[in-house]
Automatic annotation (TrEMBL):
GO molecular-function terms, A-Z: acyltransferase activity, transferring groups other than amino-acyl groups
Gene3D superfamilies: 3.40.630.30
Record protein name field: GNAT family N-acetyltransferase
SUPFAM superfamilies: Acyl-CoA N-acyltransferases (Nat)
Key words of the record: Transferase
Domain N-acetyltransferase: 9-169
InterPro entries linked to this entry: Acyl_CoA_acyltransferase (IPR016181), GNAT_dom (IPR000182), N-acetyltransferase (IPR051531)
The keyword Translocase belongs to this UniProt entry's keyword annotation: no
Matching PANTHER family: GNAT FAMILY, PUTATIVE (AFU_ORTHOLOGUE AFUA_3G00765)-RELATED-RELATED, N-ACETYLTRANSFERASE DOMAIN-CONTAINING PROTEIN
PROSITE patterns, A to Z: GNAT (PS51186)
One Pfam short name: Acetyltransf_3
Species of the source: Thalassotalea litorea
C-alpha cells in the first residue's frame, strides 16, 4: 500500500519481497553508523519487516520504503518511531537512504512528504527528530525543513540532539 507520493518518490509499506533491497541500507555499516540498533543480519531484516507489518496493522505508525517513481528502485527508509526522552514519549521521524542516493535531495524530499502526511493524515501538532550530533547530513536535512534544536540528551547510551518542528498551528 502506498502511503504518499512526492515529486520523484513514492513511500509504501514493506513486504517480505523487500528484504534483499533493505540490505543496501540496514546491512551497510557506513549507513547504519549513527543507528542505535546497528547493522542488521539477514534474519534481523526479516524480523524488521515483520515488525513493520505488525505496526501497520496495530498503530499505523512504522517504517516505510522509499522508492523511485521512475523505475520502482528502492531508495531507502523513512518512518516514525516513539522513544522516551527525558521522561516523555516522543514521536520522531527517521530516514536512511541507500548510499547511491546520498546527496541528491531525496532524504529531504521524502522527509518533507512524511511531514505533510503527519500533519494532514495524523493531525500532529509537532514532530521531533533525534539526530546524532556527528551526523552532519541528517542535521542538514532537518535544518532545511525548519526543525529547531530543543535539547541534547542520550538515548540508549547514545548522544542525540532533539529537534522539533511545529506542524499544525
Amino acid at each position: 500500500m502506498t502511503l504518499f507520493k512526492t515529486e520523484r518518490l513514492f513511500i509504501r509499506e514493506f513486504t517480505p519481497e523487500d528484504s534483499e533491497a533493505l540490505k543496501s541500507v540496514l546491512a551497510d555499516l557506513k549507513i547504519m553508523q549513527y543507528s542505535i540498533v546497528g547493522v542488521h543480519s539477514e534474519q534481523q531484516i526479516g524480523q524488521y519487516i515483520e515488525k513493520c507489518q505488525a505496526s501497520y496493522q496495530s498503530s499505523g505508525i512504522s517504517q516505510w520504503g522509499i522508492f523511485s517513481k521512475v523505475n520502482d528502485e528502492f531508495v531507502g527508509i523513512c518512518g516514525l518511531n516513539c522513544h522516551q526522552i527525558e521522561g516523555q514519549d516522543m514521536l520522531h521521524i527517521n530516514y536512511r537512504l541507500a548510499g547511491k542516493f546520498h546527496g541528491k535531495g531525496m532524504a529531504t524530499e521524502a522527509t518533507d512528504g512524511l511531514l505533510k502526511y503527519c500533519e494532514k493524515q495524523l493531525r500532529l501538532k509537532t514532530i521531533s527528530a533525534l539526530i546524532d550530533p556527528k551526523n552532519i547530513a541528517s542535521l542538514n536535512v532537518v535544518k532545511r525543513l525548519n526543525f529547531h534544536k530543543q535539547l541534547s540528551t542520550t538515548l540508549l547510551g547514545f548522544a542525540v540532539d532533539v529537534y522539533q518542528r511545529k506542524l499544525l498551528s
